[in-house]
Amino acid sequence: MKLGITGGRPLQGEVVVEGSKNSALPIFAATLLTDDDVLLQGIPTLKDVQTIIAILEHVGKRVENLVDGSYRIRSSGQLSHVPPPLLIRRMRASFLVLGPLLARLGEVAVSLPGGDAIGLRPVDLHLKGLQAMGAELEQRDGIVFARAKSLQPAEIHLSYPSVGATEHLMMTAALVPGRTVIRNPAQEPEIHDLADFLRGLGTGIELHSTFMEIDGCPELQGTTHTVIPDRLCAGTYTIATALACGEVFVRCIPWHLRPLVNTLREMGVQIEEQPDGLVVTHHGAGVYRPVDIETRPYPGFPTDMHPPMMPLLALTAGESRLRETLYEDRFSYVKELCRMGADIRLWGQTAIVRGVKELAGAEVQAKDIRAGATLVLAGLSARGTTVVHDEEEHIPRGYSDLAGTLRQLGAEIEER
């Protein structure tokens, strides 16, 4: 896939942000906890969603695609304890089926996961938490073999507030009678969305600032759940408007984007917060101010918004610094942005960005989801035409239709 973007076109209109991929994937995995019917709504049309659906169907679920992003998940009989390794390796979230299958079946063999090549993302916190609940684990040839006659409630302390580990242990504990306590859990909005889904199944969950309590049940019921809007997509369109000029209403949950919005306002971006979204306005007057950014777990600045911010930093009047603290290989896009005229130097995990007057169109390569979106955003403000090569189709793994949405707002962008 190739995208051609002609810069200099202002954006105008409204974006209804799609459902959150990072909510949908763990919630799909959590449907393994019950044999009852589950109806999920607001699901984005993404390659990764199709992957998790294929995994569910391989292990014994029937998934019916309804209309407008709705799916009904039903039991088709006996669950399998061996999910297909090739599908598991396609993305990281697929590993989350391990805990629910272990809680249901008492044994499971799951391949170690794949996903974007943005650095080491080990699953040790997942496994340590499962061991604390009584799982016996063994790794051989890239496969995790897990057994447990009966999982037990436990008090688990995460050395790092990992989103994936928190989700994995939450959904596993949902089927374990008694109270499991997770200390230092992740606090992302997607964690709260998963908690709401598990409550719908019949699990008791209380979320606190530094810990959560899960009161599990031996049998869970069906439910209907609508996933939250994707804050990362909303953030992408917010930054796109700041880069391209114009005025766009981004329909989303505003407080989910507050760490990003605070930084953009510090730079001088005009953002009005409304109950159901953000009005982003930029008419080209003035130059944005440089800022220093450090990525942190929520409620800090989100690592997934680090790459899309870089074209904006590249056009500020002065020097900005961006320090990545979560993933060591997040900077795959820097060389490509420099081909467009950006002045970026890397010092370890810190990017030093000196603002330039303009970016120029170039042929560039997408290396992961956010890197691909970053180069598209850079093309919106660049002089001339930018061609983003995405042979491995990273962008469709994170955005249902990035090009189409931007085109509806007035961008000149085409698939080639």
Automatic annotation (TrEMBL):
Q: Which residues form the active site?
A: D116 (proton donor)
Q: What is its EC number?
A: 2.5.1.7
List the coiled-coil residues.
Answer: none
* Localization (cell): Cytoplasm
List the catalysed reactions. Answer: phosphoenolpyruvate + UDP-N-acetyl-alpha-D-glucosamine = UDP-N-acetyl-3-O-(1-carboxyvinyl)-alpha-D-glucosamine + phosphate
List of residues binding UDP-N-acetyl-alpha-D-glucosamine = R92, R121, P122, V123, D124, L125, D304, L326
Q: Would you tell me the Gene Ontology cellular component terms? A: cytoplasm
The cross-references to CDD domains, in alphabetical order and at most eight, read: UdpNAET
Q: Which domain of life is it from?
A: Bacteria
- The UniProt record lists the Enolpyruvate transferase domain at 6-403
Q: Does the keyword Cell cycle apply?
A: yes
Tell me the GO BP annotations in alphabetical order.
Answer: cell division; cell wall organization; peptidoglycan biosynthetic process; regulation of cell shape; UDP-N-acetylgalactosamine biosynthetic process
SUPFAM superfamilies listed in its UniProt record: EPT/RTPC-like
Listed GO MF terms: UDP-N-acetylglucosamine 1-carboxyvinyltransferase activity
Question: What are the binding positions for phosphoenolpyruvate in this chain?
Answer: K21, N22
Q: Does the keyword Cell inner membrane apply?
A: no
Q: What is its main location?
A: cytoplasm
From the UniProt record, give the pathway where this protein acts: Cell wall biogenesis; peptidoglycan biosynthesis
What keywords sit in the KW lines? Cell cycle, Cell division, Cell shape, Cell wall biogenesis/degradation, Cytoplasm, Peptidoglycan synthesis, Transferase
Q: Spell out the NCBIfam families in the cross-references.
A: murA, PRK09369.1
State the HAMAP family in the record: MurA
Family designation: Belongs to the EPSP synthase family. MurA subfamily.
| Entry function | Cell wall formation. Adds enolpyruvyl to UDP-N-acetylglucosamine.
Name of this protein? UDP-N-acetylglucosamine 1-carboxyvinyltransferase
Annotated organism of origin = Fraserbacteria sp. (strain RBG_16_55_9)
- What is the name of the gene encoding this protein? murA
